[in-house]
TrEMBL record:
<protein>
    <recommendedName>
        <fullName>UDP:flavonoid glycosyltransferase YjiC, YdhE family</fullName>
    </recommendedName>
</protein>
<dbReference type="Pfam" id="PF13528">
    <property type="entry name" value="Glyco_trans_1_3"/>
</dbReference>
<dbReference type="GO" id="GO:0016757">
    <property type="term" value="F:glycosyltransferase activity"/>
</dbReference>
Amino acid sequence: MRIVYGCNSQGQGHLSKAAVLVPLLEARGHDVRVISSGHQPPSIYHFRWHRHLPGLPYVLIGGKTDYRKTAEGWFRTLPRTWRALQELQRMVREFQPELIISDFEPLTGSPFLSPGCEVVSMCRQVALLDPDVPLPECENFQRQIAGTMIRIYTMGATRLFGFHYSPASYRCLPPVVREDLLTTPVTAGKHLFIYNYHHTGSGNLQRMLDWSQKRGVPIRAYGFPGEIARGQHGNVLMQPSDRHQMLLDMASCRAAIVTSGVMTPLEAFLLRKPVITVPLEDQWEQYTNAWQMEQAGMAKMSRTWDYDAALELPPPTTDHPYWNWLTTSPQRILDTILQESTSRQTALRRAA
């Protein structure tokens, strides 16, 4: 099957899923072309066929989502975005895909693409609009704005799946966990693992360095781009972006304190580490992730980077009710998507 895989490149959660799923699709004999949009993706991600296009990135200022500046940026760059969509249309006409998978990528999920095939939106954000998925009480404005943005990114989809921490709805899929995570040796080290890419407030760099020096606790930290050289700084080892090393550092840590994307706190939980997760300020999606993980007993939500609390947190229990769901093989997730797509194609051919 010829497949276009659309991937949002803001943050690394969408790219990390693509790094797992695209090779599995190709191993099944599918011809896959990856389209990413947004910020330039890190060089650690490699695909056989990949094009990066301008998209609709969020604007983050001081670790906060600025919705006004985001909307202004979208309108200001509309001609560029339209040209990117036209470039994708030309590629689609030439490639003639039989399926488009869009992971919160606005060009492959656009109703203006008209690809002539099924478009499956498969992203965490879809679960946040699912009426069967519980959501926290919060400001209506943030929730409405986030919901509007999610609909813009998925408007052209013919089928919707949302990654979620439990099978709350038939539209939910288990999160995509890289297959080497569950076979990685887990040890009880002394260091605190920190992932803080869009730091803000109490998560600032100097405070982390001072705390580690005062407490004598070693830290292995990822993030703080452009602020500090990679390498050893007192008790803090600033690590370069490397998925494999990040997994090893997490598997050997004493505890983890991370931002509230989907995968990093989940991976720490699956490695049975105590986890504190800190949502970005004014970011409803991350706040919801953190709230849902705390409700599910997977992590503790915090509004501040409380390193002391991370050291005092006990590890998760070994008999979590959603363990089997959360450790579902990526192959089975692909089975769900591809089997339904194949069934729909067969029905359409018969109807024709």
